[in-house]
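Help wanted!
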Amino acid sequence: MTAVGGATGMRTFRVYRYKRGEPGWRFDLFDVPVTSRTTLLEALRWIQLHLDRTLAIRHSCLHASCGTCGVQVNGREALACVTGVDDLGGTITVEPLANIPVLTDLVVDMREFVERFPEEIPSIRAVASSPETDTPDGIDGYERFEDCIECGLCLSACPVSATSDGYVGPAALAAAQRLLEEPRGTDPDRILDWADDPLGAWRCHAAFECTAACPSNVAPAERIMALRGALAGRRGGA
Amino acid sequence: MSDTVPGADRRAERGPVLRKGVGIPASGWFDPRGRALGGFAFSANRVTGLGLVFYLYLHLGVLSLLLRGERSWDDFIRLATSWAFLSLDVVLILGILYHGLNGIRVALVGSGLVADRQRALWWSLGVFGTIALVAAALHIYGSR
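Answered by r_m:
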Protein backbone atom coordinates (compact mmCIF):
# COMPACT_ATOMS: atom_id res chain seq x y z
CA MET A 1 0.00 0.00 0.00
CA THR A 2 1.05 3.57 -0.57
CA ALA A 3 1.02 4.21 3.15
CA VAL A 4 4.00 1.85 3.53
CA GLY A 5 5.95 1.81 0.30
CA GLY A 6 8.56 4.56 0.24
CA ALA A 7 7.25 6.13 3.43
CA THR A 8 8.68 9.58 4.00
CA GLY A 9 7.30 10.26 7.44
CA MET A 10 5.08 9.20 10.28
CA ARG A 11 1.75 10.61 11.36
CA THR A 12 -0.16 9.90 14.54
CA PHE A 13 -3.83 9.22 13.93
CA ARG A 14 -6.22 9.90 16.79
CA VAL A 15 -9.20 7.80 15.80
CA TYR A 16 -12.68 7.83 17.36
CA ARG A 17 -13.76 4.39 18.57
CA TYR A 18 -17.20 3.19 19.54
CA LYS A 19 -18.69 -0.29 19.56
CA ARG A 20 -22.31 -0.91 20.35
CA GLY A 21 -22.76 -2.84 23.54
CA GLU A 22 -19.53 -1.47 24.98
CA PRO A 23 -19.57 1.41 27.44
CA GLY A 24 -18.87 4.85 25.97
CA TRP A 25 -16.45 5.91 23.27
CA ARG A 26 -12.76 6.74 23.20
CA PHE A 27 -9.92 7.87 20.97
CA ASP A 28 -7.17 5.41 20.01
CA LEU A 29 -3.75 6.54 18.79
CA PHE A 30 -2.03 4.89 15.82
CA ASP A 31 1.33 5.74 14.27
CA VAL A 32 1.24 5.30 10.50
CA PRO A 33 4.03 5.64 7.92
CA VAL A 34 2.95 7.94 5.09
CA THR A 35 4.20 9.45 1.87
CA SER A 36 3.34 12.80 0.34
CA ARG A 37 0.54 11.11 -1.60
CA THR A 38 -1.04 8.97 1.09
CA THR A 39 -4.76 9.51 1.45
CA LEU A 40 -6.66 9.36 4.71
CA LEU A 41 -8.48 6.25 3.55
CA GLU A 42 -5.20 4.52 2.76
CA ALA A 43 -3.90 5.38 6.21
CA LEU A 44 -7.06 4.06 7.87
CA ARG A 45 -6.86 0.87 5.82
CA TRP A 46 -3.21 0.50 6.87
CA ILE A 47 -4.27 0.77 10.51
CA GLN A 48 -6.95 -1.84 9.86
CA LEU A 49 -4.53 -4.24 8.18
CA HIS A 50 -1.50 -3.81 10.43
CA LEU A 51 -2.54 -2.46 13.82
CA ASP A 52 -6.19 -3.05 14.62
CA ARG A 53 -8.46 -5.30 12.56
CA THR A 54 -11.49 -4.19 14.57
CA LEU A 55 -11.37 -0.62 13.22
CA ALA A 56 -14.56 -0.13 11.21
CA ILE A 57 -14.51 2.15 8.18
CA ARG A 58 -16.81 2.31 5.16
CA HIS A 59 -15.69 2.92 1.60
CA SER A 60 -16.34 1.78 -1.91
CA CYS A 61 -15.35 3.65 -5.05
CA LEU A 62 -12.04 5.28 -3.94
CA HIS A 63 -12.65 8.32 -6.16
CA ALA A 64 -15.21 10.58 -4.45
CA SER A 65 -18.09 9.14 -6.36
CA CYS A 66 -19.96 6.91 -3.90
CA GLY A 67 -19.96 9.22 -0.89
CA THR A 68 -19.55 6.44 1.66
CA CYS A 69 -16.23 7.37 3.28
CA GLY A 70 -17.21 10.74 4.75
CA VAL A 71 -15.56 11.54 8.09
CA GLN A 72 -14.45 14.53 10.11
CA VAL A 73 -10.72 15.09 9.92
CA ASN A 74 -9.35 17.67 12.34
CA GLY A 75 -12.92 18.87 12.79
CA ARG A 76 -13.61 19.36 9.11
CA GLU A 77 -15.79 17.17 6.91
CA ALA A 78 -14.01 15.32 4.13
CA LEU A 79 -14.17 12.24 1.95
CA ALA A 80 -11.33 10.05 3.24
CA CYS A 81 -10.56 8.64 -0.21
CA VAL A 82 -9.50 11.98 -1.70
CA THR A 83 -8.04 13.67 1.36
CA GLY A 84 -4.26 13.75 1.54
CA VAL A 85 -2.74 13.44 5.02
CA ASP A 86 0.60 15.07 4.26
CA ASP A 87 -0.44 18.59 5.25
CA LEU A 88 -2.84 17.73 8.08
CA GLY A 89 -0.28 18.06 10.87
CA GLY A 90 1.63 15.58 13.02
CA THR A 91 -1.44 14.36 14.88
CA ILE A 92 -4.57 13.87 12.81
CA THR A 93 -7.92 13.51 14.53
CA VAL A 94 -10.44 11.38 12.68
CA GLU A 95 -14.06 11.24 13.81
CA PRO A 96 -17.32 10.07 12.28
CA LEU A 97 -19.66 12.64 10.76
CA ALA A 98 -21.52 14.84 13.23
CA ASN A 99 -25.30 15.06 13.64
CA ILE A 100 -25.82 11.48 12.39
CA PRO A 101 -25.91 8.50 14.82
CA VAL A 102 -22.72 6.46 14.92
CA LEU A 103 -23.05 2.79 14.06
CA THR A 104 -19.51 1.82 14.96
CA ASP A 105 -16.16 3.62 14.96
CA LEU A 106 -16.11 5.87 11.87
CA VAL A 107 -19.31 4.50 10.35
CA VAL A 108 -22.56 6.43 10.75
CA ASP A 109 -26.13 5.26 10.24
CA MET A 110 -27.17 6.84 6.94
CA ARG A 111 -30.78 5.72 7.33
CA GLU A 112 -31.54 8.85 9.37
CA PHE A 113 -29.92 10.93 6.64
CA VAL A 114 -31.82 9.34 3.75
CA GLU A 115 -35.13 9.43 5.61
CA ARG A 116 -34.98 13.22 5.58
CA PHE A 117 -35.52 13.35 1.84
CA PRO A 118 -39.07 14.01 0.62
CA GLU A 119 -40.95 10.94 -0.59
CA GLU A 120 -41.14 12.37 -4.10
CA ILE A 121 -37.39 12.00 -4.49
CA PRO A 122 -36.44 8.50 -5.60
CA SER A 123 -33.30 7.01 -4.14
CA ILE A 124 -31.77 6.49 -7.58
CA ARG A 125 -31.84 9.33 -10.07
CA ALA A 126 -30.69 9.29 -13.67
CA VAL A 127 -28.57 12.14 -14.95
CA ALA A 128 -30.68 13.98 -17.48
CA SER A 129 -28.19 16.16 -19.30
CA SER A 130 -24.58 16.30 -20.37
CA PRO A 131 -22.36 19.30 -21.17
CA GLU A 132 -22.95 18.64 -24.86
CA THR A 133 -26.71 18.90 -24.51
CA ASP A 134 -28.27 21.68 -26.56
CA THR A 135 -30.21 24.17 -24.50
CA PRO A 136 -33.31 26.09 -25.57
CA ASP A 137 -33.09 29.77 -26.48
CA GLY A 138 -32.74 31.93 -23.40
CA ILE A 139 -31.18 29.19 -21.25
CA ASP A 140 -27.39 29.32 -20.92
CA GLY A 141 -26.99 25.82 -19.59
CA TYR A 142 -28.38 23.12 -17.34
CA GLU A 143 -27.43 22.81 -13.72
CA ARG A 144 -26.97 19.21 -12.56
CA PHE A 145 -28.16 18.77 -8.98
CA GLU A 146 -27.72 15.05 -9.40
CA ASP A 147 -24.12 15.77 -8.53
CA CYS A 148 -25.18 15.15 -4.94
CA ILE A 149 -23.57 11.87 -3.84
CA GLU A 150 -25.55 11.79 -0.58
CA CYS A 151 -22.41 11.58 1.52
CA GLY A 152 -23.87 13.49 4.48
CA LEU A 153 -20.96 15.93 4.79
CA CYS A 154 -23.33 18.90 4.51
CA LEU A 155 -25.50 17.67 7.37
CA SER A 156 -22.43 17.16 9.53
CA ALA A 157 -21.10 20.65 8.78
CA CYS A 158 -24.45 22.41 9.32
CA PRO A 159 -24.42 24.36 12.60
CA VAL A 160 -28.23 24.43 12.70
CA SER A 161 -28.47 20.63 12.50
CA ALA A 162 -26.25 20.50 15.58
CA THR A 163 -29.02 22.02 17.69
CA SER A 164 -32.12 20.94 15.81
CA ASP A 165 -32.49 17.22 15.06
CA GLY A 166 -35.83 17.84 13.36
CA TYR A 167 -34.31 20.11 10.70
CA VAL A 168 -34.38 18.20 7.43
CA GLY A 169 -30.96 19.52 6.50
CA PRO A 170 -29.14 20.82 3.43
CA ALA A 171 -29.03 17.72 1.22
CA ALA A 172 -32.76 17.05 1.29
CA LEU A 173 -33.61 20.71 0.72
CA ALA A 174 -31.15 20.97 -2.16
CA ALA A 175 -32.70 17.88 -3.70
CA ALA A 176 -36.14 19.43 -3.33
CA GLN A 177 -34.98 22.56 -5.09
CA ARG A 178 -33.55 20.40 -7.86
CA LEU A 179 -37.01 18.92 -8.30
CA LEU A 180 -38.47 22.40 -8.65
CA GLU A 181 -35.95 23.19 -11.38
CA GLU A 182 -36.69 19.93 -13.14
CA PRO A 183 -39.93 18.37 -11.84
CA ARG A 184 -39.91 15.21 -14.03
CA GLY A 185 -43.57 14.61 -13.33
CA THR A 186 -43.46 15.70 -9.70
CA ASP A 187 -46.00 18.26 -8.56
CA PRO A 188 -43.97 21.39 -7.61
CA ASP A 189 -46.64 22.45 -5.12
CA ARG A 190 -46.14 19.25 -3.15
CA ILE A 191 -42.41 19.93 -2.96
CA LEU A 192 -43.04 23.50 -1.84
CA ASP A 193 -45.56 22.28 0.76
CA TRP A 194 -42.92 19.90 2.08
CA ALA A 195 -40.24 22.59 2.25
CA ASP A 196 -42.55 25.31 3.63
CA ASP A 197 -42.08 24.28 7.24
CA PRO A 198 -40.34 25.77 10.29
CA LEU A 199 -38.04 22.73 10.20
CA GLY A 200 -37.70 22.91 6.43
CA ALA A 201 -36.29 25.70 4.28
CA TRP A 202 -37.01 28.34 6.94
CA ARG A 203 -34.82 26.67 9.57
CA CYS A 204 -31.60 27.36 7.64
CA HIS A 205 -29.60 30.25 9.09
CA ALA A 206 -27.48 30.82 5.99
CA ALA A 207 -24.13 29.81 7.47
CA PHE A 208 -23.17 28.27 4.10
CA GLU A 209 -21.05 25.60 5.83
CA CYS A 210 -22.86 22.95 3.78
CA THR A 211 -21.65 24.56 0.57
CA ALA A 212 -18.11 24.76 1.94
CA ALA A 213 -18.18 21.08 2.93
CA CYS A 214 -19.83 19.70 -0.21
CA PRO A 215 -17.28 17.64 -2.21
CA SER A 216 -19.49 17.61 -5.28
CA ASN A 217 -20.19 21.31 -5.90
CA VAL A 218 -23.91 20.99 -5.29
CA ALA A 219 -23.89 24.28 -3.31
CA PRO A 220 -26.77 23.20 -1.04
CA ALA A 221 -27.02 26.57 0.74
CA GLU A 222 -27.53 28.43 -2.50
CA ARG A 223 -30.20 25.89 -3.44
CA ILE A 224 -31.96 26.42 -0.09
CA MET A 225 -31.91 30.17 -0.67
CA ALA A 226 -33.41 29.66 -4.13
CA LEU A 227 -36.03 27.38 -2.59
CA ARG A 228 -36.90 30.13 -0.14
CA GLY A 229 -37.23 32.55 -3.02
CA ALA A 230 -39.74 30.18 -4.64
CA LEU A 231 -41.62 29.85 -1.36
CA ALA A 232 -41.68 33.62 -0.86
CA GLY A 233 -42.89 34.05 -4.44
CA ARG A 234 -45.67 31.56 -3.87
CA ARG A 235 -46.75 33.30 -0.67
CA GLY A 236 -46.61 36.67 -2.39
CA GLY A 237 -48.68 35.40 -5.28
CA ALA A 238 -51.22 33.65 -3.06
CA MET B 1 -31.73 -22.81 18.23
CA SER B 2 -32.49 -19.17 18.83
CA ASP B 3 -34.81 -17.47 16.35
CA THR B 4 -32.86 -14.22 16.55
CA VAL B 5 -29.53 -13.34 15.00
CA PRO B 6 -26.74 -13.28 17.60
CA GLY B 7 -26.02 -9.70 18.61
CA ALA B 8 -29.25 -8.36 17.09
CA ASP B 9 -30.15 -6.54 20.29
CA ARG B 10 -26.88 -4.65 20.30
CA ARG B 11 -27.21 -3.75 16.63
CA ALA B 12 -30.61 -2.22 17.30
CA GLU B 13 -29.07 0.26 19.72
CA ARG B 14 -28.93 3.84 18.52
CA GLY B 15 -25.36 5.01 18.69
CA PRO B 16 -24.11 8.35 19.98
CA VAL B 17 -24.49 11.46 17.82
CA LEU B 18 -21.35 13.55 17.60
CA ARG B 19 -21.72 17.30 17.92
CA LYS B 20 -19.15 19.94 17.22
CA GLY B 21 -18.01 22.13 20.09
CA VAL B 22 -17.65 21.26 23.76
CA GLY B 23 -20.47 20.54 26.18
CA ILE B 24 -23.83 21.91 25.04
CA PRO B 25 -24.59 21.48 21.30
CA ALA B 26 -24.88 25.25 20.72
CA SER B 27 -21.16 25.57 21.54
CA GLY B 28 -20.62 24.02 18.11
CA TRP B 29 -21.74 27.31 16.60
CA PHE B 30 -18.44 28.74 17.83
CA ASP B 31 -16.18 25.82 16.93
CA PRO B 32 -13.70 27.56 14.61
CA ARG B 33 -12.18 24.37 13.17
CA GLY B 34 -12.41 24.36 9.41
CA ARG B 35 -15.05 27.07 9.27
CA ALA B 36 -15.58 28.98 6.04
CA LEU B 37 -16.55 32.64 5.71
CA GLY B 38 -20.28 31.97 6.02
CA GLY B 39 -19.74 29.99 9.22
CA PHE B 40 -17.72 32.76 10.84
CA ALA B 41 -20.38 35.27 9.78
CA PHE B 42 -23.05 33.05 11.36
CA SER B 43 -21.09 32.74 14.65
CA ALA B 44 -20.28 36.46 14.77
CA ASN B 45 -23.95 37.27 14.22
CA ARG B 46 -24.82 35.29 17.33
CA VAL B 47 -22.03 36.82 19.40
CA THR B 48 -23.03 40.35 18.44
CA GLY B 49 -26.71 39.51 18.97
CA LEU B 50 -26.02 38.31 22.51
CA GLY B 51 -23.85 41.38 23.09
CA LEU B 52 -26.62 43.73 21.96
CA VAL B 53 -29.16 42.02 24.22
CA PHE B 54 -26.70 42.41 27.12
CA TYR B 55 -26.24 46.07 26.21
CA LEU B 56 -29.99 46.67 26.15
CA TYR B 57 -30.32 45.58 29.77
CA LEU B 58 -27.16 47.49 30.70
CA HIS B 59 -28.66 50.57 29.07
CA LEU B 60 -31.89 50.20 31.05
CA GLY B 61 -29.83 49.78 34.21
CA VAL B 62 -27.87 52.95 33.48
CA LEU B 63 -31.06 54.90 32.79
CA SER B 64 -32.36 53.82 36.17
CA LEU B 65 -29.62 56.01 37.69
CA LEU B 66 -31.88 58.93 36.85
CA LEU B 67 -34.18 57.72 39.59
CA ARG B 68 -31.39 58.27 42.12
CA GLY B 69 -31.10 61.95 41.44
CA GLU B 70 -28.90 64.48 39.67
CA ARG B 71 -25.66 63.64 41.46
CA SER B 72 -25.59 59.94 40.54
CA TRP B 73 -26.34 60.84 36.93
CA ASP B 74 -23.52 63.44 36.83
CA ASP B 75 -21.12 60.88 38.28
CA PHE B 76 -22.07 58.46 35.54
CA ILE B 77 -21.64 61.09 32.80
CA ARG B 78 -18.11 61.77 34.06
CA LEU B 79 -17.37 58.06 33.74
CA ALA B 80 -19.10 57.81 30.35
CA THR B 81 -16.84 60.44 28.80
CA SER B 82 -13.61 58.64 29.75
CA TRP B 83 -11.46 57.12 26.98
CA ALA B 84 -12.12 53.60 28.21
CA PHE B 85 -15.88 54.06 28.22
CA LEU B 86 -15.87 55.73 24.81
CA SER B 87 -13.92 52.76 23.50
CA LEU B 88 -16.75 50.53 24.69
CA ASP B 89 -19.09 52.77 22.68
CA VAL B 90 -16.99 52.06 19.59
CA VAL B 91 -17.28 48.33 20.33
CA LEU B 92 -21.03 48.81 20.62
CA ILE B 93 -21.15 50.55 17.25
CA LEU B 94 -19.11 47.67 15.80
CA GLY B 95 -21.67 45.19 17.13
CA ILE B 96 -24.62 47.21 15.83
CA LEU B 97 -23.05 47.67 12.40
CA TYR B 98 -22.04 44.02 12.08
CA HIS B 99 -25.37 42.64 13.26
CA GLY B 100 -27.40 45.05 11.16
CA LEU B 101 -25.41 44.76 7.97
CA ASN B 102 -25.12 40.99 8.25
CA GLY B 103 -28.87 40.91 8.80
CA ILE B 104 -29.32 42.76 5.51
CA ARG B 105 -26.99 40.26 3.84
CA VAL B 106 -28.85 37.26 5.24
CA ALA B 107 -32.20 38.80 4.28
CA LEU B 108 -31.08 39.44 0.71
CA VAL B 109 -29.52 35.99 0.35
CA GLY B 110 -32.18 34.18 2.36
CA SER B 111 -35.05 35.56 0.35
CA GLY B 112 -33.52 34.12 -2.78
CA LEU B 113 -32.93 37.55 -4.34
CA VAL B 114 -29.17 37.03 -4.55
CA ALA B 115 -28.93 33.41 -3.48
CA ASP B 116 -25.38 32.85 -4.77
CA ARG B 117 -23.75 36.16 -3.79
CA GLN B 118 -23.29 35.75 -0.04
CA ARG B 119 -19.51 36.18 -0.13
CA ALA B 120 -19.61 39.26 -2.35
CA LEU B 121 -22.29 40.78 -0.13
CA TRP B 122 -20.25 40.04 3.00
CA TRP B 123 -17.18 41.78 1.66
CA SER B 124 -18.98 44.78 0.16
CA LEU B 125 -21.09 45.36 3.29
CA GLY B 126 -17.92 44.80 5.30
CA VAL B 127 -16.17 47.64 3.49
CA PHE B 128 -19.18 49.88 4.05
CA GLY B 129 -19.34 48.89 7.71
CA THR B 130 -15.63 49.53 8.25
CA ILE B 131 -15.92 53.05 6.77
CA ALA B 132 -18.98 53.72 8.94
CA LEU B 133 -17.17 52.40 12.03
CA VAL B 134 -14.14 54.62 11.45
CA ALA B 135 -16.40 57.65 10.94
CA ALA B 136 -18.32 56.82 14.11
CA ALA B 137 -15.11 56.31 16.11
CA LEU B 138 -13.73 59.67 14.97
CA HIS B 139 -17.00 61.32 15.93
CA ILE B 140 -17.13 59.60 19.34
CA TYR B 141 -13.53 60.37 20.30
CA GLY B 142 -13.79 63.86 18.79
CA SER B 143 -16.77 64.68 20.96
CA ARG B 144 -14.71 64.33 24.15
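OP: Thanks! One thing I noticed: Residues 83-110 of chain B form the longest helix (28 residues).
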